[in-house]
Amino acid sequence: MADVVSFRKEEQSGPLLREVNSPVLRLTLNNPPANVLSIALMEALLAALEEAAASKEIKVVVIAAAGKLFSAGHDLKEMTSHRAHADGGRAFFERTMRLAAEVMLTITRLPQAVIAEVDGLATAAGCQLVASCDLAICTDTSTFCTPGVNIGLFCSTPMVALTRAAHRKQAMEMLLTGEPIDAGTAKEFGLVNRIVPQQYLRQVIDKYASVIATKSPQALKIGKEAFYRQAEMPLAEAYDFAVGVMVENMLARDAEEGIGAFLGKRMPDWKED
């Protein structure tokens, strides 16, 4: 079962706010007015995710945002300020993109489930962040876009996450037109799981998080890693890989406990790694 709930707030200033309501870690982008993914915000987000990965207390991570926008993507003013450098900004541009890629990969590789809580616009790298999360739940007024093409900059790095969340032609529609899509279209495309009225967003997120937190941390870790690995494999190779994962999972202590609890009509007692 999930841990007894404990509550504490941490780091209630700066570009990233943390709130621990054990077993859920809530990370709130706090870089007004547009929650741009500046170097400072991405470094703070990466550090928080890496800390969560090592935690036995945290079972679910929620990524939310303060204000009216989820995130407008990279900080274009910050990036443009480096064009005056001798290299025209190349080193800073590469640092920015590689840091963003590291954040997205860390979300995918995190042993815990990560849920995007979206209320407002998620654009460019902000849309990439949503697409990188395991689940995404948004309000009915949220919008999503990859508008780089409108300013001569194709959203090539957001494309990586987007094409793994949405169907290929629908992802290309977003990338080629740069036009925003509404919440209903985002759900149809596969970018979000559910759409809820704004007043119920936190309630629905908390419900999802609490349900996931009751599951075996060992099984979730095994399953999440396997999910992303098999998705990149040909069908036969994916089945071969999944068979091996399933056998090892069956031999794991939590599977033995969970099956025993099911057959014995009792609640399972999950163990930490």
UniProtKB/TrEMBL annotation:
Instruction: Give any Pfam family that matches.
Output: ECH_1
Q: Which UniProt keywords apply?
A: Fatty acid metabolism, Isomerase, Lipid metabolism, Transit peptide
The Swiss-Prot or TrEMBL record annotates one GO molecular function as: isomerase activity
InterPro entries per UniProt: ClpP/crotonase-like_dom_sf (IPR029045), Enoyl-CoA_hydra/iso (IPR001753), Enoyl-CoA_hydra_C (IPR014748), Mitochondrial_ECH-domain (IPR052377)
Q: Does the keyword Transit peptide apply?
A: yes
Which GO biological process entries does UniProt record here?
Answer: fatty acid metabolic process
The yes or no answer to whether the keyword Lipid metabolism is present is yes
- Coiled coil region boundaries: none
**By its UniProt entry, which NCBIfam families does this protein fall under?**
PRK08139.1
Biological role stated in the UniProt entry: May play a role in fatty acid biosynthesis and insulin sensitivity.
Per the record, the similarity remark reads: Belongs to the enoyl-CoA hydratase/isomerase family.
Protein name per the record:
Enoyl-CoA hydratase domain-containing protein 3, mitochondrial
